[in-house]
Structure formats: structure tokens, C-alpha cells
Fold:
Amino acid sequence: MNVELRKKAKELLKTKQVEMIIGYQRGPDGISATPVFITREEEAENLIWDVYCVYNLSNYLKDFPGKKIGIIAKECDVRSIIVLLQENQLKRDDIFIIGVECSGVIAEHTLASGKESPGELDFDEKCKACRPSTPRLYDYLVSQKDQKDKGVLPEENPYQDIRKFEAKSIEERFKFWQEEFSRCIRCYACRQICPMCYCPRCVADQTMPTWFSRAPDLEGNLAWNVIRAFHLAGRCIDCGECERACPVGIPLREVNKKIEKDIKELFDYEAGAGVDQKPLLSCFDQNDPEDFIR
Amino acid sequence: MNKSQIPDHSPQKNSGDRNLKAPIKDFEPKIVGFLCNWCSYAGADLAGTSRIKYPPNIRVIRVPCSGRVNPLFVLNCLMNGVDGVLVSGCHIGDCHYSEGNFYARRRFAILKRLLEYIGIDPRRFQMAWVSAAEGERWAKLVGELVEEIKEAGPNEHFGGNR
Ligand code: SF4
Ligand code: SF4
Ligand code: SF4
Ligand code: FES
Structure:
């Protein structure tokens, strides 16, 4: 697997099909995987792909406009690349997607515990809602012959927890999010790490007008977290990076997934389904539901 | 909005818990309405020129089209203690810009559900189509909104009437 990956990477650099490859290398702890940017053939030896390759590297693609970039991407990463293509943030010809088959990456707490081989329970939550799979878009596929499909099974009902929460009383719901959001320190790590949060001036940074309190108080935090999630409607592909990056552990995926579920129900829309798909909020259907309108 | 006239109904600021409070009889909700220039604003104007009586709780903000309304407008109102927000535009097919209300409809279907999810009473955010000829309907709508938001009680989630 890694052999094939490195071989392909070398070839791409050698033939100058790409100027750089964004991939993963083994971290200094000998277990985790960290991003690596390689430009020379010999560096390709550092490339790896395994269950520790949690990060979504597509966030880096926009940093190199006009350059030919190769990127190692699993299914969820590929879907974020698709959204960026839909939104004209990337040129298809500028990127070379080295697709990797994925059967789940591990949860970060497993990493922290220093365990060598993750058991089934240690896979990341996001992978439970994903079909272990081959990326839907790639230029070259590194197939995973040597590794048995030991990945997590797709959840029967990926929105079970969301539905459970919806069934709670309005007071309970407010109390829950009030407590969660009250911990937010407005570090905007969730925004910085999100491939889709590329606005040159985020609404959270605007001062004319100031859309919501910039202090970490309830009003500001609630408005920030609602608007962040809303801006990702139909764009969030549930890579889970925001939740992973949040230093105070706010369950951001539970907000993202709520919207994901709603847009599926309301508009039969799935983010990052294909390059030709129109962005959710820049299109409409004559028959969109309007039972909530008086 | 003269602040001195607004009674402070919020003994438990930020409590977010309706059940703890006794019902408030003399509560007059503050409602902000974003009305599109071509239909709903004209409809509200018609109600006025026809001298139809309706509750004065709504503060109207004229916007070119319902498609102009940013979800941030709605959030900003709620965060500043407004008790209810209405977005009103032309009926489907009548938008002055042909498509504006189609976009608004999508956008706010998502926002409406999201606000409810995080525990904001769904009665506090409403949407309507009111045409320029529907003065009566406008008056009736505002009457209903005021009743509903009275039932929901003052918005004290974020510091209440500031
Ligand atoms: S909102 Fe979070 S889960 Fe969704 S795409 Fe952005 S970083 Fe990934
Ligand atoms: S939160 Fe919204 S405004 Fe801010 S960067 Fe993300 S998408 Fe842009
Ligand atoms: S990463 Fe967490 S703490 Fe930081 S702004 Fe986002 S939600 Fe708030
Ligand atoms: S002009 Fe009235 S909704 Fe567009």
C-alpha cells in the first residue's frame, strides 16, 4: 500500500505532473500521522497512509493558487474537494487527487491513550456514518488490497442521536446548548480548520456592522455557533475537523449533522455529492417545502 | 422604542427556563418585521391607509426583497432581546426579482429548524407571504403573531429587554 503510494508520488514529481504533494508522514511520537508537503522525489519515502491519517488535508489546497498540487485524499476529504470545486475555489486541472481506500480512521482519544492497534470501538465517530469506501473522485487510486476491510460498519440510522435530541423539550435543548456554547472561547479554531470556511473576512471579524458580540458571552457565542453551522449548510461534508480542533470540546458535529439531516429531508440534498451539483443555497426548486410559511 | 417605557419582565435573566415564571399578563411583545418593498410592505401600507386596526407591536424594516434578508438579521434581533422576528415577502411566483423568495424560502427553512434545535421557541421566528393587496391579511397576521408570541413569553434568553 505505502509502497504503491510512494511509487506514484515519485512518478508524479519526476514527470512534473505536480509541483508538490500534500500527504501524511509519521509524527514524532511514532504513531500519529502529521501533514507533510513534499517537492522532491526522495521525500516520497516519508509518505504513509493508514488508520492514523485523520486530518483532512484539502484545507491546504487553496494556499497554492496556480500551482499543480497532488493530494492524498480519502472519501470524506474528496467530498470537501468537490465542494471547493463547486464553489470555484479550486481548478480541477490544478489538482491531482491520489485517492486512498478508507475503512475508517481512529478517534483522537485512542491516539492520546497511546494504544498501538485500535480496536473497533476506537474508530472515529464520523466514520460510523460513512460507508467504508473508495473515494468518489480521484485521478489515481491506491487500492488497499493488503488490508482487510476491518472498518466500522455504516450505522443503520446515522441521525438517531439527532432525532433523540430533537425529541427533548425546548427548555432542555436550550439548556444543553447554553452550557456547551458557554465554554466557547471564540478562538475560531473550528473556522480555521474547516476547508469550507475560506471567507477573506469572516462575519465574526466584521466590525461595520458588528453582527454579534465579539466577547465570549452567551449572545455572541450562540450567534457565532449558529451562524458558523448555517454557513456550512449544504457544504459541510462531516470531516469532523471542527469538532476535533475545538479546544473546549463543544460537540460541533451535532449542530452540523442536524443541518445535514434537515437538508436531506427538505431538499434531498447531500453536500459534496458531485462536481456538477449546484451549491444548496444558490439554487432552489419550485416545489421546495413551505409548510412553515404562513 | 423608548427604553423607559419598556417594562422589565426579566427577573431571571439568562435563565432560559419558561417554567419557573408566573404568566405575565401585561406583556407586550416587540416584534421586528422584515418586509419586502414590493408586496408585504405595500400590503402593510394598505392596511394603514385603509385604517384597519392591528396591534402596534411590530416594528417594520423595509427590505428590497425577502431574498435580501440575511439570517444574521434574524439572529441579531433575537440576541438583542426582540421577542419575535417576521420575514415577509411576495407570494411564490410574484417576487419582483422573480426568484428572491425561492432563495429565502430555502434559507429560512434551514434556519427555522436550526433555531428550534438549539432551543429557541419556533414561534419567535416566522415567515409569511403577504401581497400588496392583502391589507386585511396583514392586519390579521400581525394579530396572530402577537398572540402567539405573548404565549411564548418575553425573550429572556439573552438578557431580555435591554
Ligand atoms: S464544518 Fe466541520 S465537519 Fe463540516 S466540513 Fe467544516 S470542518 Fe469538516
Ligand atoms: S463562519 Fe461563515 S463567514 Fe466565517 S469563514 Fe465560515 S463561512 Fe465564512
Ligand atoms: S473551536 Fe470551539 S471554542 Fe473555538 S471558536 Fe470554535 S466552538 Fe468556540
Ligand atoms: S420582491 Fe417581494 S419577495 Fe422578492
